Amino acid sequence: MLSRLRGAMTRLWTPLADALLRAGVSPDAVTVVGTVGVVVTALWAFPTGHLLLGALVITVFSLTDSLDGVMARRAGRSGPWGAFLDSTLDRFGDAAVFSGLVVWYAGGGDDRTTAALALACLVLGSVVPYARARAEGLGMTASGGIAERADRLFAVLVAALVVGLGAPTAVMTVVLALLALASAVTVAQRVAAVHRQVREGAR
Ligand SMILES: CCCCCCCC/C=C\CCCCCCCC(=O)OC[C@H](COP(=O)(O)O[C@@H]1[C@H](O)[C@H](OP(=O)(O)O)[C@@H](O)[C@H](O)[C@H]1O)OC(=O)CCCCCCC/C=C\CCCCCCCC
Ligand SMILES: Nc1ccn([C@@H]2O[C@H](COP(=O)(O)O)[C@@H](O)[C@H]2O)c(=O)n1
Ligand SMILES: [Mg+2]
Ligand SMILES: [Mg+2]
């Protein structure tokens, strides 16, 4: 759903993208720095219960995931290497965000149900991009669905922000439960899309 904001994000980032390119910063550097920022923050702030700070800092670093693509396109150098690097490093970022929550709720946050739901989001959220990547590797498409990466990040970061501001843990529990469900539905949508393409190809 949030991927509809791609055009708006491109317009927002274009001046900064141009300035960074003029300063000699490469899109790959932004991809790497953004990922390291997300991973380090998620693995420090969330396990130590700093949900508000973690959500804010991770939001800033996550947003660089749309900046690197804008830079690559503005520089006329978007291609398979950048697509591979971007997607591969995204997996580290996603894993760190949900692992950080698993560690917090299994420990100091003391809520096993929420920890289990964060683990479910971690697993299901890794199957979603896998389905897309495998389909694309087989010459088909399987993008889209109700919980794409930007949607998943948005939901979990807003929940962390709200709980960090003092809302009860139940808010995180409900959001993670819905997110796990939405991720499972997204996997099913992608499996159905590939099945359709295979059937149409066989006709
Ligand atoms: C700084 C002030 C903070 C204020 C706090 C507000 C709280 C807001 C809380 C959360 C914000 C969450 C931000 C999430 C940002 C996500 C960015 C992102 O993912 O961008 C990349 C994304 C996808 O690009 P790709 O096609 O390259 O990615 C592929 C895709 O992700 C596939 O995913 P799959 O669905 O398969 O799992 C992967 O398969 C593939 O590997 C991967 O490569 O780009 C977009 O989708 C573009 C739209 C991004 C929309 C972001 C909306 C942000 C909303 C609010 C932000 C508010 C702050 C604004 C500050 C502006 C500062 C200048
Ligand atoms: N270091 C990078 C990062 C990205 N790309 C290209 O951008 C596409 C992703 O765009 P986003 O706006 O979603 O970041 C990606 O598929 C690559 O084509 C790049 O070349 N180098
Ligand atoms: Mg990117
Ligand atoms: Mg990305």
TrEMBL record:
GO terms for cellular component: plasma membrane. InterPro entries: CDP-OH_P_trans (IPR000462), CDP-OH_PTrfase_TM_dom (IPR043130), CDP_ALCOHOL_P_TRANSF_CS (IPR048254), PIP_synthase_PgsA1 (IPR044268). A CDP-1,2-diacyl-sn-glycerol binds at D28, A29, V30, T31, G69, R73. It is found in: Cell membrane. GO terms for biological process: phospholipid biosynthetic process. Mg(2+) 2 binds at D65, D86, D90. The active site is at D90 (proton acceptor). It is a multi-pass membrane protein. It catalyses: a CDP-1,2-diacyl-sn-glycerol + 1D-myo-inositol 3-phosphate = a 1,2-diacyl-sn-glycero-3-phospho-(1D-myo-inositol-3-phosphate) + CMP + H(+); 1,2-di-(9Z-octadecenoyl)-sn-glycero-3-cytidine-5'-diphosphate + 1D-myo-inositol 3-phosphate = 1,2-di-(9Z-octadecenoyl)-sn-glycero-3-phospho-(1D-myo-inositol-3-phosphate) + CMP + H(+). The chain crosses the membrane at residues 114-132, 153-181. It is an enzyme of class 2 (transferase). The keyword Amino-acid biosynthesis does not apply. Mg(2+) 1 binds at D65, D68, D86. Its EC number is 2.7.8.-. Keywords: Cell membrane, Lipid biosynthesis, Lipid metabolism, Magnesium, Membrane, Metal-binding, Phospholipid biosynthesis, Phospholipid metabolism, Transferase, Transmembrane, Transmembrane helix. Its cofactor is Mg(2+). It comes from the Bacteria. Pathway: Lipid metabolism; Phospholipid metabolism; phosphatidylinositol phosphate biosynthesis. Contains a di-nuclear catalytic Mg(2+) center. Homodimer. Catalyzes the conjugation of the 1'-hydroxyl group of D-myo-inositol-3-phosphate (also named L-myo-inositol-1-phosphate) with a lipid tail of cytidine diphosphate diacylglycerol (CDP-DAG), forming phosphatidylinositol phosphate (PIP) and CMP. PIP is a precursor of phosphatidylinositol (PI) which is an essential lipid required for cell wall formation. Belongs to the CDP-alcohol phosphatidyltransferase class-I family. HAMAP family: PIP_synthase. This is Phosphatidylinositol phosphate synthase. It comes from Cellulomonas shaoxiangyii.
